[in-house]
Amino acid sequence: MNHKLSLGLTMLPLVPAVQAQEQGRQDGERPNIIFIMSDDHAQQAMSIYGHPIGKVAPTPNIDRIGQEGAVFWNNYCCNSISGPSRAAILTGKHSHKNGFMKNWALGFDGSQQTLPKLLQQGGYETAVIGKWHLISKPTGFDHWMILNDQGEYCNPQFITEGDTTIHKGYVTDLITQYCEEWMDNGRDKNKPFFLMMHHKAIHRNWVPAERHYRLYEHAKFPLPDNYYDAYEGRYAAQMQKMNIYRDMYEGHDLKMVAGIDSDSLLFDPWPHAFMGTMTPEERRRFLDAYRDRNNEFYSKPRSFKEVAEWKYQRYLQDYMACVASVDESVGEILDYLKRTGLDKNTIVVYTTDQGFYLGEHGWFDKRFMYEESFGMPMVMRWPGHIKPGTQVTGLTQNIDFAPTFLDMCGISIPQDMQGISFKELVEKGKTPRDWRKSLYYHYYEFPGFHSVRAHYGVKMERYKLMHFYVDDNWELYDLKTDPEEMHNLYGKKGMEKITTELKAELARLQKEYDVPQELCR
Questions:
Q1: For the whole prediction, is pTM greater than 0.90?
Q2: Of all residues in the chain, what percent are helix, strand and coil, respectively (each to 5)?
Q3: CA distance 152 to 158
Q4: What integer pLDDT is reported at residue 269 of this predicted model?
Q5: Which GO molecular function terms does the record list (predicted)?
Q6: Of 105, 208, 433, 515, which has fewest CB within 10 angstroms of its CB?
């Protein structure tokens, strides 16, 4: 099934080439990079971080990257939403500078300077396969094959230069297959390569591969201590609509049906959306896999608390089953690299576009500057350069990825990139004294999905200050004494000095990053 590609944007000329600084290296010695990025993969769901959820559902292959290289403990995004995070990674710039501040922006400006273009101009073969979600066509890539919009889990559409075609199979497996095929036969093997392998998973609505429908059917995931958070003293948290037991769609998200022995999903704004790409036989097997569990739910009356916790378990069972396929994919790629000998000179990165809530504060989704969604888990291996077991504790951010990869490849970093290279942090295994002490964050998408108020903020090692500027509400947290961010200290007695210091640092960062004041009110 083919359709003409119509993305609505005119292609603009490339920016002038940036000269590669070879630093005495030959192309054969320059590292390849495989940048594996999933969608909405919470740190809590990667077992290398030691969270109780990861102990129930481990991720041995993702862990393997960190065990053979580095684990990042303080890596963050600059805007916790899919498209803007991807734009920041491509450009090394905050959202207001790269122009993609919201998911419903007009489209990423593909004419601007980007990481793949700079790598191309430095002699690299470049490719992106999987989720793009930036509306415009990819630029700077020798090969691209992207999912249509968010992509579907089952039998997804892939867009190429010429058309849009349905591909039979499970999306995570297909992306893995196409990445290996490109590395085998699609690239110029006389050049080092940069491959962006972008998974659709683990994005909502969490449809596992058929082999994993029942993987965690009997698992019992630990309920977060603040699952029933009342949001006292946090106005923006009170106003959100991303609560698992109140706002999650019972049909689309939780695969709940109308009653015992029913095969009709409960109605919601996207009824049967994900099932629409399945064949009749695939739909039958899907419903068969969930029927007994759904029937058990409807077999007796349940209290509010019982329903709320049943929904949490269903959410985690499906979410972690999607994680399982991504982890298998990572293992397949690592094995492929070893099998082909590419492992010796290939940097492998695994990360996600932002963090995600797995029941903390009663939530799913992201957007807030709170730690679970602000944080981006990441592991990286580079044989001969990163010592196995390295722990990176310095503050890093997704705007740093582009300058770091350029630095690792011996290509000069443009002065207008706002991120900084953390190559020294991973190679030396320690944080320099002059490393940054704070991070800037800005979320713009309000009014919008989930009703999360627009806000900006500053994070330092211990304290975090946020300003929800539409309503002029401030929040201040001591992450040492209150890591779950339950107690807003803004305006409390004794917090005057640190509040003044944080506001001054926030103003300094906004000036340094040239944030227009009209975007801050």
A1: yes
A2: 35, 15, 50
A3: 10
A4: 86
A5: hydrolase activity
A6: 433
Q: SS3 for 89?
A: helix
The tokens describing 354, both together, are 């932002």
**C-alpha–C-alpha distance, residues 186 and 145, integer Å:** 12
Q: Which two tokens stand for residue 409?
A: 């490849």
Q: Residue 330 half-sphere exposure, CB side, CA atoms within 13 Å?
A: 28
Q: What average pLDDT does the chain have?
A: 93
> Checking DSSP bridges between strand 193-198 and strand 378-381, what pairing results, if any?
unpaired
pLDDT digits (tens, 9 = 90+) for 436-484: 999 999 999 999 999 999 999 999 999 999 999 999 999 999 999 999 9
| 3-class secondary structure, 475 | strand
- pLDDT given at position 28: 52
| Residue 223 backbone phi and psi in degrees, to 5 | -75, 130
Q: pLDDT tens, 320-340?
A: 999 999 999 999 999 999 999
Flag whether pLDDT at 10 surpasses 50.
Answer: no
In whole angstroms, give the CA distance from residue 504 to residue 479. Answer: 19
Q: Which long-range contacts (CB under 8 A, 24 or more apart) does 116-120 make?
A: 116/90, 116/140, 116/141, 116/194, 116/196, 117/14, 117/15, 118/18, 118/402, 118/406, 118/411, 118/414, 119/194, 119/405, 119/406, 119/409, 119/411
Note the pLDDT of residue 162.
Answer: 85
CA dihedral 342, 347, 348, 350 (to 10 degrees): -170
Give the distance, in angstroms, between the CA of residue 340 and the centroid of all CA atoms in the same chain: 29
Instruction: Name residue 165's beta-bridge partners.
Output: 2, 158
N-term to C-term CA, the chain: 47
The DSSP secondary-structure symbol of 324 reads H
DSSP 178-210: HHHHIIIIIS-TTS-EEEEEE--TT-TT----G
Amino acid letter, 362: G
For 410-452, list the strands marked E by DSSP.
438-443
Which residues partner with 442 through β-bridges?
456
Residue 15 pLDDT > 60? no
